[in-house]
Design a protein that fits this description.
Length: about 260
Amino acid sequence: MSESFTFYIDGVPVEAAPGMTILDAAQAAGIWIPRLCWHEELEPFGGCRVCTVKMNGRSCAACTQPAEPESVVENDSVALREWRKALVELLFAEGNHFCMACEKSGSCELQALAYRLGIAAPRFEHRWQAREVDASHADVLIDRNRCILCARCVRASRDLDGKNVFGFTGRGPERRVAVNSDARLRDTDLDVSDRAVDICPVGAIIRKGVGFTVPIGARRYDGAPIGSDVESANDELESANEHTEGGAAATVRQEE
Ligand code: SF4
Ligand code: FES
């Protein structure tokens, strides 16, 4: 603990240990930084840039940028909200997302982020690219129309499942998630119980035969917006600190 230091997110003092990223420190302090490719079980990838913040006036990805002592981080500003909004709108314009027909609707992180950022319809023209669906596997399906190239499946298969089932192929607009077989998903050693199957933030990798099992009203984001789990942890932290002397640096806000 003696090595920990303080930095500031939107004026709130936050404690971090050396090497901790801005996002991890924010998370521990109950401050939500929007993200898509980040996942707590995975090494950061820094691909989606939705977590962009400004550290001492310079833009950086909060999920890969280590926090620095006494640094001043801007997270919840009008300019950054607009930037994130544009990124999410671009993802909708580049892919073929039909939320009303997607079984991940209500539990999809992209959709939930769009709602939280106040996106009603993307301002960019849809590209309507042809993208391949691979339904060859007995238990799992990949619908690349919904893929946002976050690499969670790639990292999960490699680092959590030890298999390397997924990877990327192509460049720029042609970039696609691929499988480690020249043929199809059924020719890989993917198992329905693999972590890579459940870690997709959107409805691009889904289990077969179990669609629409959660009723509307009980889906992941039906009750509370994305990020509120992190923020409610902050409320609990603050409430706990009301009953203790001192308190963590992250809760100094209530004492000011
Ligand atoms: S299939 Fe899902 S987890 Fe994999 S890169 Fe695409 S969106 Fe991310
Ligand atoms: S969450 Fe940081 S770049 Fe995607």
